[in-house]
Batch of 4 targets.
Target 1
Amino acid sequence: LIRALGFMFLLAFGLTSFGIVIANYVRGFEGFGVFSNAVILPLYFTASSVFPLDPALTRSQTMVLYPEWLVILVEYNPITYAVDAMRGILIGFNQFDPALGFQVVGGMSVLLFAWAMWEFRKN
């Protein structure tokens, strides 16, 4: 449970940093709702929480189940790795190595935090 909370914290840290970047550009509260609908919802709906890719299937078998563009979006979505790591920790079913999930989410969080700090200092 502690490891899952750590992944949740790391993901929240990265997404909060991304929110700070966007908040530097948005001048009104209403504009942030547009950001939420345009960025966060597609990230959620293309993560493996909605379309879990079965690790027992090959890539060609997965392409039969889902369109190729969707498989590519799911594989390159950083939220996929966070969801997969938490799923592996909590229920023991994961498609990627949890260390890879930590690297992807940690790297995303560090990059987004650095971007947020740069934007915040610029303004």
Note: The chain is about 80% helix and 0% strand.
Target 2
Amino acid sequence: MRSLNLFLLLIICACALLLTFIALPTFGHRPLAHWALNVGIWVSALMTSLLYLGAWLIAPATDQKSQVVILSTYLPTLLIGMLTGAVWGAVGHVMQTEGLDLKSAVVRAGSLIYIGYLLVLSITISTALYLTRVRKRHAAQTAQLY
């Protein structure tokens, strides 16, 4: 299960990084809304995956329940992060159609962005705290055996 989680995290990280590099240069051919949508989705997926890679490193290697917790919280968190990243497309659309600057456009969609990323961070931090507690408990049990 641990190797499955690592494989899944690394594949999604690699794909998100590749798609971010593809989406970043615009060369003036893409509308701002499409560019912001693509970059928002893939950067959010990349950051969520990197956070969960850190959580994977915290988890004890022999505890299967920790691996299930990582997988069961990673997938919804990834989805929430990608949907929140897609809101940046709405910000780009508002900037383009109404001629607003970034600050004014973010004010219009800011609550969705803040709530989405706050939800992603709270789930990730809760998972990391749980994994830290399990790791400490596992280390204490191992120390008692020796």
Note: Residues 2-145 form one domain.
Target 3
Amino acid sequence: MMRDLEAGRRSEYGGLTGAVVRMAAEIGLDVAVFKKAGAMIRERSLLL
């Protein structure tokens, strides 16, 4: 993933985290830390 971000390419992050967040929502599980980590990675990818 880091190589993708450094090269300005999309990483597999979106698909992986999207699935986890959706599954967590289905069972009522709070994944706030996971969402925050995702936001930080997305922000970093915009800065590279």
Note: The chain has one domain: 2-47.
Target 4
Amino acid sequence: MLFYLVRHGQTDWNNEKRMQGHMNIPMNDVGIQQIKDLADQMVRDKVRFDRLIASPLDRAKQSAEIIAEKTGFKDEIVFDDDFIERDCGLLEGEVWYPELNLEDPKYKMETISELCERAQRALDKYDFAEDEKIMIVAHGAILTAVRTVLSDYKIDYYDRTEPVIQGNILCCKKEEGKETSFFNMF
């Protein structure tokens, strides 16, 4: 299986370093252009996929719709609530800063363990074929959790060796009996 993990295009809150979580913040003009450019690059490089799954939040939904339109993907886009962004609890809308301890229970955030469990649940509900190419368009935290799950937890959530970057695709090649490989496509 080949997974293409795509993070939605930029939002104003990304720019302001605000934690979006479940807030339905739309992409800004820069974000829309990032996704259009990514889709154009996919067309040039003949990137094809069999299934397109996305978060239903507008920033990911619109990203998936742009990709589908530009690449000629004709099947239905599956919008799955399990791929929405990490619940940021009391910190939704707040500005992130390096000293902020996101794991402090007083903020009532979804823990990394809960996030990875949700990513596992999301992946487990689909019957993927061994030769299938799956594109998942979602958000930074949940896609990082998906990466952790696809690596069979060999890549720690906090490992940023192969990050999920806006305007790029993190590819995850998963083969039976082999270690999952990861690489940024563009």
Note: The helical segments are 12-15, 29-44, 58-71, 112-124, 140-150.
